[in-house]
Amino acid sequence: MGRIFLLSFLSLLFISCGSSSKDGETTVRENTDISLAYSYNRNSKYSKILKECLQEKSESCSLSKLPFISNPSNPITKSMIMERVFVSHDWMGERFSEVLDILDEDIKFLLGSVTAIVIADSIKPSFYWSKTGAIYLDPRYLWLNPQEAKTIIVKDDYRSSYGDELIFENFNRFVKNNQKAYSFYSLHSNKTRTIDDIKLRFASLMYHELTHANDYLPFYLRNSLDNNLSVSDALNKIKNKRVSIELDNSYPLQSEDLIKMGKIMYKGKKATLSQKKITAEEIGSFYENDYVSSLYAYSSIYEDTATLSQMFLMKYHYDLERDVAFLDKPSGKDKYYCEDYIVKWGERNSIAKTSISQRAVLVLNKILPNNQNWNKVSNNLGEVKILKLDIDWCSSLDINNSRSIRDFDKKDFIKENFTLDF
After folding, report:
1. Beta bridge partners of 129
2. Cα 119 to Cα 37: distance, rounded to the nearest angstrom
3. Least buried of 75, 128, 141, 381, by fewest C-beta within 10 Å?
4. Whether 298 contacts 269, CB under 8 Å
């Protein structure tokens, strides 16, 4: 088996919108320096406005100055979107433009509920901020060559130690035909990627962040905002219409144990003595009896909403299925490898469960126009599959166990890649 050292930090994408962790929001924004960023389209009428309105210390700009991309009269075009791209390096805007050409039209529609797309070297993790109405994207999803990768500031996710005292791990991955849907590359790998290498991972990120934006501003409310108000005041005025609130009222999460665990793993709350003893099997049993698509859903109603939409749309548009697994956390070594992480509970394509897909349909009916019958789509999401237990995480990839996992299949196994990839 390959012996590739596991990095110890998580790759989580913090969403500032609506999170109950105000300290966390402040941490992310204060560590996101976009003071040297600029409008990718220098000729955009929003070039100077973006600079003025997107800074941490700026007041929330009025909608008359920085409106949402949504155009009441015409479809959203690529040129409308690119006018709002704000970057720290030109290659980030170039790559966003290239990927936008090969992503599905739903992403363009969802972009109507943002004021800007910020891509900068200091952003980690990605987030949506209701004060500016913009999404802030981690450029690690977009680089293609070592020269581009070297321009990205290397830093750990500030939540990297959350849940260290627990005795289980939660790993996730997108798969297709018993293979990983895409590979991961370290910023230090000195490798070159293609546009196809980054397409699916970036699509997943966009669904997640844009669901946050459309949670705050559903499409049917885009034309009803008062342009005299600031972005934050306008969104606050319709806060009772948020999709996440309706989801929570209609289909609230059931497991109090996992809600508490979400605060430990994603908010930094210290675990109690009894929580430190909860095993991977026990967590799996809690999870199995609720109806979420990701453990991250337990961090807030906003993440519950975003992960549902994300998993459903990745299956619908790209036929990718999501694995969720709870594994024993190894101990007693200085370094850990793939074979050290043993699956104690695992499930593939949980979005196909009726109890979960009906929650996703509620979200999609609110954030995407009804040119799709989402109820009908939800009946064609495939079947839920159970991962083989008591084998290592990499070997569990082939759910039929029809092939052995060779050394080179594991050589890009890095712990951060199999926690939350959004």
Report:
1. 134
2. 9
3. 75
4. no
If you write DSSP's letter for every residue of 53-80 in order, what string do you get?
Answer: HSSTTSPPPBTTTS--S--SSS---HHH
Q: Indicate the domain borders of the chain.
A: 22-149, 168-418
Q: E strands, 132-181, where?
A: 134-137, 168-176, 179-180
Beta strands 179-180 and 168-176: pairing type? antiparallel
Structure tokens that stand for 373 in this block: 């019958």
- How many other C-beta atoms are found inside a 10 Å radius of the C-beta of residue 411? 12
Question: Which residues, in sequence order, are CB contacts of 164 under 8 Å at separation 6+?
Answer: none
Which helix (H) or strand (E) is 98 found in, with range? helix 90-102
Q: Which two tokens stand for residue 324?
A: 């969720």
**Per-residue model confidence as pLDDT tens digits over 164-221:** 899 999 999 999 999 999 988 888 888 999 999 999 999 999 999 999 999 999 999 9
Structure tokens at 91: 């290659």
- Residue 346 parent element (H or E): strand 343-348
- Contacts with 58 (C-beta within 8 Å, 6 or more apart), sequence order: 52, 132
**Total length of the chain:** 422
List the end-to-end C-alpha distance of the chain, in Å, as a whole number. 28
**Coil, strand or helix at 326:** strand
Cβ atoms 247, 301 nearer than 8 A? yes
Cα–Cα distance, 266 to 159 (Å, whole number)? 7
Question: Whole-model pTM?
Answer: 0.91
Residue pair 131/118 in contact by the 8 Å Cβ criterion: no
Contact 322, 314 (CB under 8 A): yes
What Rg value do the Cα atoms of the chain yield, rounded? 21
